[in-house]
Amino acid sequence: MHARLFLVDAFSDGPGSGNPAGVCPLDAEPDAAWMQLVARELNQAETAFLWPAGDGFGLRWFTPTLEVDLCGHATLAAAHVVWSEGLLAPGLPARFHTQSGVLTCARLDDGRVEMDFPEEAPAPREAPARLADVLRVEPRWVGANRMDWFVELADASAVRALAPDPRAVAALGLRGLIVTARAETGADHDFVSRFFAPQSGVPEDHVTGSAHCALAPFWCARLGRGVLTGFQASARGGRVEVEPRAGRVRLRGGARTTLAGRWLG
Fold first, then answer.
1. Do both 155 and 46 map to the same domain?
2. CA distance 231 to 235
3. What is the DSSP string of 63-122?
4. pLDDT given at position 265
5. Of the candidates 104, 46, 81, 150, which has an alpha carbon nearest to the alpha carbon of residue 250?
């Protein structure tokens, strides 16, 4: 089966930043085994597959090892490809039918993409016994949502210094682990985070849109503001503007296509 493939840096501020995602636009929904094969070959944190469906597009996301229910950066990348490749006029919103419901993306006047995602606020949970082996520092707060463990540390430097054993993270279960703290005084962002998901085939993700569905309500409540900017402090790094709205979260960020080609397998 031949197909077009794109590599897109999502939540990118410039070359070498943000989170690369594979994007594969198709004429119809393919077999899941084929999508997993392509995702494994591309070996990105996620690859998005999309096809025309009803009033928008069907959309599914695959890591190199499994399918996931929600992925922000690959959705942003898919929306970017929909507009840049002429599959949809730039002034029209992109509607994606997914396992997490209908996700809508709009192209802003400054070229960024705004995504409308479900809020995934974390609730307090007792820390799993293995968490101390992962963090090696005392957490300020521990919780979880339906997808991930969620930990607040004392300061941003502790988040940046974290170097967890992937096997210890995988033993925690759920999809992955979000670690966060308030930003340093004078920073151009409000909070920092990192996301680890070796149990899902992603040892550390570069910039995780779905994690910000939890980070947005958490930090907006604590800081008493309606719009914040998060910085995911991975090796590549990336900024995500967040705005919770009545059970939903608006996520905003830039995107750029870096590679285009064809699947010939």
1. no
2. 12
3. -SS-EES--HHHHHHHHHHHHHTTSS-TTSPEEEEETTEEEEEEE-TTS-EEEEEE----
4. 81
5. 104
Q: Report the C-alpha gap between 175 and 48 in whole angstroms.
A: 18
pLDDT of residue 1: 79
Question: 237 and 139, same structural domain?
Answer: yes
Same domain, 197 and 257: no
Q: What is the dihedral of CA 177, 70, 11, 225, to 10 degrees?
A: -70
Which pLDDT value is given to residue 132? 87
Query: Which residue range is the domain that position 163 belongs to?
Result: 123-246
pLDDT score at 263: 95
Please state the pTM of the whole predicted model.
0.90
Structure token digits, residue 2: 């031949």
CA end-to-end span of the chain, whole Å? 6
Same domain, 58 and 148: no
Q: Which residues are catalytic?
A: 46
Number of domains in the chain: 2
77 and 189 in a single domain? The answer is: no
Residue 172's domain is classified under what CATH number? 3.10.310.10
Counting as low any pLDDT under 70, the low residues of the chain are none
pLDDT, position 16: 82
